[in-house]
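$ ./design --mode recover --in tokens.txt
reading tokens...
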């Protein structure tokens, strides 16, 4: 006759199965203790895509603002106006400080040159005579070299103008100084002042 299992035999497998379950919290506590002591490496930080990061930041900000009491539209407008006034005052103070600093630095470095385009001030240019064929008239080439604002490259340009030479003193190749004057003919708006250097 086969023996029937007793209650003790039937209970034993259940007890064995229960032991790992009870041991699991103990293992979790051990791993937590090890990680707090610094022996076990911590899990890597979660890497989120930019859109998800922004969405979470917006949600966090909305959650923080929800803690504020609700305000009426008039209160919101008053708050906006106060912010604008504070920013305008800050801008005004910064501009005054910047202007004072610029004025102090410019007065220290160099004196302000006279304005060329002020009312009643005639322009003066120096250039090279490229033609003297016409009577009492010379054609002067004005060369300009300036640095490009964006690309920082030296850009060279030139333009020509007609100047009145009463005594036919200047010739091709001479370096001359001309001054702005009243219209003397259809194309002449300049007058010869001085021959700086003769052509060789």
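writing sequence...
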């Amino acid at each position: 006759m086969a023996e029937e299992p007793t209650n003790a035999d039937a209970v034993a497998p259940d007890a064995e199965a229960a032991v790992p379950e009870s041991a699991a919290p103990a293992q979790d506590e051990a791993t937590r203790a090890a990680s707090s002591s610094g022996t076990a490496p911590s899990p890597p930080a979660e890497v989120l895509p930019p859109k998800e990061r922004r969405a979470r930041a917006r949600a966090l900000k909305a959650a923080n603002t929800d803690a504020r009491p609700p305000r009426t539209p008039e209160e919101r407008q008053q708050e906006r106006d106060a912010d604008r006034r504070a920013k305008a005052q800050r801008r005004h103070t910064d501009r005054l400080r910047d202007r004072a600093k610029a004025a102090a630095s410019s007065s220290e470095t160099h004196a302000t040159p006279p304005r060329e385009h002020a009312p009643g001030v005639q322009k003066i240019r120096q250039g090279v005579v490229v033609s003297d064929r016409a009577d009492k008239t010379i054609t002067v080439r004005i060369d300009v070299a300036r640095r490009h604002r964006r690309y920082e490259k030296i850009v060279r340009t030139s333009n020509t103008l007609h100047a009145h030479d009463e005594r036919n003193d200047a010739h091709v190749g001479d370096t001359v100084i001309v001054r702005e004057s009243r219209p003397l003919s259809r194309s002449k708006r300049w007058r010869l002042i001085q021959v700086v250097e003769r052509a060789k």
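exit 0
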